[in-house]
Write a structure and sequence with these properties.
The chain is α+β, with helices and mostly antiparallel strands and about 350 residues long. The chain has 10 helices and 15 strands.
């Protein structure tokens, strides 16, 4: 899903990413809270600068010349990417947001996603100091990654429920009370792949030390950071919050109520991460108003919002299992492969099986 109205380029380090132990300075971009020993955030407060935590950083990051007082200047540069390639994520993958929400959630899953697509950037980053450097940099804690794909996953699942008009699921989601309409979302444990291991359940500093040692030694596939049980309660409409929706929402049209929840979640995901700017459009041959995400996470929320507004359909490729867009104009509605390469690969496999049979 490409559009000349969107202008976004991102960077991926040539050497990929790694998990490191570092101390947080107490400064954060995150609108969330701080990283707990369990790896997740709290609603208020700041990290203890005397304790180490785990952060995602580019390998061989460029550290020199970064003063601790310098403000956050840009996700790629702030993460210390010295050698990198630039690309346009929304042109490279029309369903990147769906790839993101499908992450099982282990440390290795997060690192592999970052190696392929880059850091999340924006308010996911924290200012940190490594023991062997006196200067500060920006790293991304696993809890903030987990927060983002859990929140986006919730929005995508509600959107899917609304689009297929799943009445049983919708009746569990939408709650009508005296003067308000609520969304109550709850899902059970999401078991990671069998080879990922146990959910992250840290109660002591010693356990955290053991976890960090595993992660920095490349054994992160044994620990999962998925949050398990997820519960959220959102006001969709009441006297002081979107009262205009009351004339639209009804028990006979639950999908519309669910889509208001998707709207609210997307707007929260976009907040402060996407701006409107003037830029040159090669398609138009002139300056136009464009939407410019400040980060990969902002770009994925924007891509999701465009999919919702255009009612885009997506399917899994039968060959590589990646998501791809099957909206009008992107090919046949019964398209089964994401690319000609996957189609030919599947054809050769069928041909080989037939010859061997």
């Amino acid at each position: 899903m490409t559009d000349s109205i969107i202008n976004f380029e991102w960077q991926v380090p040539d050497d990929g990413f790694e998990w490191v132990r570092a101390q947080a300075t107490g400064n954060r971009i995150s609108r969330g809270g701080y990283v707990l020993p369990s790896g997740f955030r709290s609603n208020e407060g700041r990290p203890d600068p005397e304790n180490d935590y785990i952060f995602l950083l580019p390998k061989n990051a460029r550290w020199e010349g970064m003063d601790i007082t310098i403000p956050y200047l840009g996700p790629a540069a702030a993460l210390g990417i010295s050698k990198s390639f630039s690309y346009r994520p929304l042109e490279k993958n029309s369903a990147l947001f769906r790839e993101f929400v499908d992450l099982p959630g282990s440390f290795s899953d997060i690192r592999e996603f970052a190696d392929k697509w880059g850091s999340l950037g924006s308010d996911v980053s924290w200012q940190i100091v490594l023991p062997k450097y006196e200067s500060a940099r920006w790293g991304e804690p696993p809890g903030r990654w987990s927060d983002e794909f859990v929140e986006m996953r919730m929005a995508v699942e509600i959107w899917d429920i609304a689009r297929r008009n799943d009445q049983n699921a919708l009746k569990n989601l939408i709650v009508f009370e005296d003067d308000c309409v609520l969304l109550r979302y709850k899902t059970g444990d999401r078991s990671p792949q069998e080879n990922v291991g146990n959910y992250l359940d840290i109660e002591s500093r010693d356990e955290l030390e053991q976890l960090m040692e595993q992660v920095v030694q490349g054994m992160e596939q044994h620990v999962c950071v998925t949050t398990g049980n997820i519960f959220a309660e959102l006001f969709l409409s009441e006297k002081y919050h979107h009262p205009e929706r009351m004339s639209v929402i009804s028990k006979d049209d639950l999908p519309t109520a669910a889509l208001f929840a998707v709207e609210d979640l997307i707007n929260e995901g976009l907040k402060g991460r996407v701006s409107a700017q003037m830029g040159w459009s090669n398609d138009e041959g002139r300056q136009v108003t464009q939407l410019v995400p400040d980060s990969l996470i902002g770009a994925m929320w924007l891509q999701f919002s465009m999919a919702v507004s255009r009612d885009i359909d997506f399917e899994h490729c039968l060959e590589c299992q990646s998501w791809f867009e099957i909206a009008p104009g992107s090919g046949r509605p019964d398209k089964s492969y994401c690319s000609d390469a996957c189609r030919m690969r599947a054809y050769r496999k069928r041909k080989k099986a037939k010859n061997n049979g």
